[in-house]
Protein 1
Amino acid sequence: MDNLLSMEHLTTNEIYELVKRASAIKKGELEPRRYEDKFVANLFFENSTRTKSSFLVAEQKLGLKLIDFETNTSSVQKGETLYDTCKTLEQVGADVLVIRHSQTTYYDELKSLNVPIINAGDGSGQHPTQSLLDIMTIYEEYQTFEGLNILICGDIKNSRVARSNFQSLTALGANVMFSSPDAWKDDSLDAPYKDIDTVIDEVDIVMLLRVQHERHTDENTTQFEVSNYHNQYGLTQARYNRLKSQAIVMHPAPVNRGVEIEDSLVEASKSRIFKQMENGMYLRMAVIDYILQSKGAETNEIINEC
Ligand code: CP
């Protein structure tokens, strides 16, 4: 695996391999390699708390050196293109680039570069490390995906998390359903749309999505009203009470409390929202390690063994 751009590019074997490595690192069963001679740059053209901070911790735990890069103090402000920024970082010695950008499939214009790219989210396209950490969290709970009933609720059309997870969880054998207002349905994804109230007591996982206000046009924003949305599509206490005893609640976060989920349920016993964040750091360690090993990185560990 040279890059991680889209869940569509991963085989189910690669998904299992990454999740197993992340779990082994988390349990202390796998000592990750050290990459003290390697450099990484994190390019976040969109805001982030979880993804950026967990990549930063993962990179430092792996011993990588960070190239200081912030869009608002870089030559992006002088009109530098994404390609020129990335080509420059490649030339100064970056061994891996982590990129979040508002442009869907931004990575198409970077194909000629010879530096691995990890997609930290592209517009409404894909968020592969989020999908992998979600898969890791589900695997910890159920040790399988086959036959699991998963309801993904909310802003499907604008959500890179919905797209990534639909593709990967379906490939792994889960039954993925959506619940969404008409304006936020996505016909390009072949999953059935359900009324949340007709299926809430049958699902193993209910995954809530953040309402993506920043991606809305005037046309679909006008259809949004918080209390209506919460009552029709949100996880209320009444719906939570109907969940199966083993069912879990997920959300990629940040959460709009009181919109996608009732405030008091964010840390309820069935919620795995903060577990997802914890797993994200281990999963990102596993991804970086896997990519640098694929690239044939010489590590201190290998050098010391010689
Ligand atoms: N889930 C997620 O991607 O969160 P951030 O936008 O805070 O990184």
Protein 2
Amino acid sequence: MSKIQMTTPLVEMDGDEMTRILWQMIKDELLLPFIDLKTEYYDLGLEHRNETDDKVTVESAEATKKYGVAVKCATITPNAARMTEYNLKEMWKSPNGTIRAILDGTVFRAPIVVKGIDPNVKSWKKPITIARHAYGDVYKNTEMVIPAAGKVELVYTSEDGKEERALVHTFNGPGVVQGQHNLNDSIESFAHSCFKYALDTKQDLWFATKDTISKKYDHTFKDVFQEIFDKEYKAAFDAAGIEYFYTLIDDAVARVMKSEGGFIWACKNYDGDVMSDMISSAFGSLAMMTSVLVSPAGYYEYEAAHGTVQRHYYKHLKGEETSTNSVATIFAWTGALRKRGELDNIPELCIFADKLEKACIKTIEDGKMTKDLALITSIEKPTVLNSRDFIIEIRKTLEAM
Ligand code: NAP
Ligand code: MG
């Protein structure tokens, strides 16, 4: 069998701990035997980030701008404990934060749906993808504790010195106050990413805020989305047979619980934080969740939604057996390979990505899975496999297909 040829390299961002071990196994067993894999390799493992003063992270993001598609392994975000463990020169920033700051964009997270790992919500038949705006609001707020009676005002001073004031509240006693902001640029790029991703995946897009109460702040989000949609995307949505649907956030929550799934739910920053944890836990497991950063300029960075699975890695280092689920990391690769195939017009690459995903799902549905899934499956007497054997089983399923 001849291997599938690639024309443009993928930007490969290697990572840390257990996911770094899985990364190599996935390449050896599931990719290299079938694809003449072209990647530009960046080692974002913490040791190498430290050696390069974290320049490697910036270079990998710049390479993503050059080639358009990246696949990323989970990485350690250092804290005090990691400073000593890895003898770090500095408490380097979160690689995901650095990459997001360079590429801009929106993170889309979707569960991988498998028969036998049933969502807790009975009506959900298809995945629900959360698109979370990643800038501003309560995450960049300014707060004040008001000790006693007094007046709080918002003051805007323009560059030419003009002032505009609005009364927040006249306090009769102690209380609290908070200032939030967002930027039109950021809201616009959020909107573009959502509309592009909806077209890309041919799914309806829902967006919700509380514009009836927040007549300026949330209303701006609503207006920006509607304007951009009408001007730039409506025709393409009609042609693709998909819909853009705006409603109030409380109405959206109620509808989501009764829906079948199969759409993208765009959320403001706080709503996305809260709702993505609800969606992922209701669908089963963080190890069955894909994540992709889509930039408004059309760059894509695929990864798993979970971390480096540190606890399993320490077991692995002690020579103990691990049963770590590699599905989300495999789907990061298939997402990136499929996108590369689409951009470079290599249908075999897209077909391979589809098949590998099907092989993962079939292996689990045949009752062969890692421990995290065995604990929650409705399949009777599942076979619990270790990290390597699970990947080997997926390879067997793939070869049989
Ligand atoms: P984690 O790696 O997601 O793991 C937390 C727990 O979830 C694990 O101990 C394990 O539970 C379970 N789990 C997660 N992924 C699994 C998988 N693929 N298969 C089986 N079980 C899985 O989160 P963490 O332990 O809080 O973080 C570890 C490191 O990852 C940190 O240094 C953090 O900075 C980093 N991190 C990176 C990213 C990223 O790069 N995108 C995201 C989050 C965290 P049991 O132990 O009960 O088996
Ligand atoms: Mg959260």
